[in-house]
Amino acid sequence: MRIVLSFLAIALxxxxxxxxxxxEDNVLVLTKPLFDDIIAKTExxxxxxxxxWCGHCKSLAPExxxxxxKLAEEDSPIKLAKVDATQEQDxxxxxxxxxxxxxxxxxxxxxxxYSGGRQADDxxxxxxxxxxxxxxxxxxxxxxxxxxxxxxxxxxGFFPDQTTQKAVAFVNTAGLVDDQVFALVTDEKVxxxxxxxxxxxxxxxxxxEPSVKFEGEEFTEDIFKNWVFVQxxxxxxxxxxxxxxxIFGGQIKYHLLLFLSKKNGDFEKYLEVLKPVAKxxxxxxxxxxxxTDEDDHQRILxxxxxxxxxxxxxxxxxxxxxxxxxxxxxxxxxxxxxxEFVQSFFAxxxxxxxxxxxxxxxxxxxxxxxxxxSNFDEVVFDTSKKVxxxxxxxWCGHCKQLVPIYDKLGxxxxxxxxxxxxxxxxxxxxxxxxxxxxxxxxxxxTKDNQVKDYNGERSLAAMTKFVETDGEGxxxxxxxxxxxxxxxxxxxxxx
Length: 495
Fold this sequence. Notes:
The chain has a six-stranded mixed beta sheet with strand order 1-2-4-3-5-6. The protein has a five-stranded mixed beta sheet with strand order 7-9-8-10-11, with helices on both faces. A hairpin with a 5-residue loop joins strand 15 (313-318) and strand 16 (324-326). The protein is α/β, with parallel strands linked by helices. It contains 16 helices and 21 strands. The longest helix has 19 residues, at 55-73. Helix 3 (55-73) crosses helix 5 (120-131) and helix 7 crosses helix 9 (221-232). Helices cover 36% and strands 21% of the residues. It has helices at residues 2-17, 32-41, 55-73, 89-94, 120-131, 141-150, 165-176, 188-193, 221-232, 241-249, 266-280, 298-303, 335-347, 373-380, 397-412, 460-468; strands spanning 23-24, 27-29, 44-50, 78-84, 102-107, 110-113, 136-138, 153-158, 181-185, 201-205, 211-213, 236-238, 254-260, 286-291, 313-318, 324-326, 368-371, 386-392, 419-425, 441-445, 451-453. It is globular and about 85 Å long.
C-alpha cells in the first residue's frame, strides 16, 4: 500500500508539473526541461549526477535504488533522482560537477553537498538526519525495539534529564554525525523496560556484539563521535567501493591493511586469529582486509609496491603523515607478530617503507634520463645543472599523452650541458623529502637549489620556456574536463 501511495505521489508531482516523470527502480530520472520545477516543488530530494561509463556510478546504482525503494515503502517525503551528466552537461556545469558520481541534496530547493556513505542504509541515515531531528524521540519499549530491528546500527541515549552535560553532548553529536541513527529515551519507565539506566549510552548493532555500552569516564562531543565511528564499524573492515569512503573519511587515520586471498582461504585462516589484536587497538588503528583476488584492488598492491606472491601480508599506512607506509619485519600473520608490528609503530621505532627500483644500466642513454630512488638526489641536486623531473604513473592517461611531447623536450635540450630532462616512476620509487599526490607532477630543480612546480600548458613550447626561464614562464593549466576526471590522475586520495 505504501509503494502504491509513493507512486501516486510521484504521479501527482508529475501532473502538477504537466509532464510524466520517468523512474527507474523508484529513482526519478531527471533532464533539464523538468529539473528546476521538480527541485522547486519537492521538499527533499537527493540527486546523483552520474556518467554511464563510470565504475563508481555502476557500483552505487543498486544501493541507490535500494535506498529509493526503502524510502518509497516508508511513504517518505524524501525522493531520490539521477541525472546523466554526460547528456545534461549544462546542468552538470551549473552545479560544478567535476567527478562522478556527484550527489547533491536539495532541501526546499537549496543545495547541500552529500557527505554520507554509498550503501543504502548509509544513504537513508544521512537523509533522515538532514530532514528530521538529530535524535528520534522514543516513547515506548516497543518503538525502541522496532527501531533497533530496522537499523543495522543505532545509538540510544537514555536521559530523563535532557539538560545534563552528557545529554547535551549526546544530542549535539547526533546532529554532527550524518551517517548514523540516534534515538533519545526520556521516560524512566521505558528506560527500565529496556534494561538501561539513566545517562546510559548504548549502541545496538546487527553484527558482532548486539549491543555496546559507552564506558568512558569522559563524555565530550569529540570523544563520543570517535566512539560512535569506531564501534559502528566491524572489528576488521573488508575493503570495497562501499566501505572506502568510511575507511578513508573517518576519524581513524592509521590503517593496518591485511592483504589476503579469499580463493586461497586466507580470510578464514587469518581474520579470526587477528580479530583480538584489531579489537585491542581499534580506537587508534583501523584494521582493513583487502581481497587481492579482486581486479579493482590491484592498484592498491601497486601503491605498496607489492607482488601477488607476497600475499598474505600486512602493511600499515599513516594518512596524516603524507600516506607514509610501513612494512613489518616478517610476513608472519600471527597475533604476536602483528601486535609487535603495531606496538613498534606507536613506539616510533619503525622506519618508513620507501619503494625503489633497481637502477637501469642505460638510465642515461636517452635524451630523457631515467631516475630511481637511488640516483635521484645525485642527479637532481647537482648544482651545476637545472633538472626538470616528471613524476609519472605507468597507468596514468595524462602521463601517456605527455610522453611524445616530453621526449621532444628531452631532444631539444639533449646537447645543453646545463639542462637535464628526467622522469621517475613515482609509483615504484619513493623519496623521503618529496611526496607526490597526483600524476603527472613536473618539478624544476634550479642550480641555486630552488624547486618550482610546473602548472602550465603541457606543450613543447610552454615547457621549453619554463626551463629556459628557470621556472618564470608558466601559465596555469586549463581546467580538466569532466570526462578526464575519471582518469586516475590522483590515486592517493582513495588508494
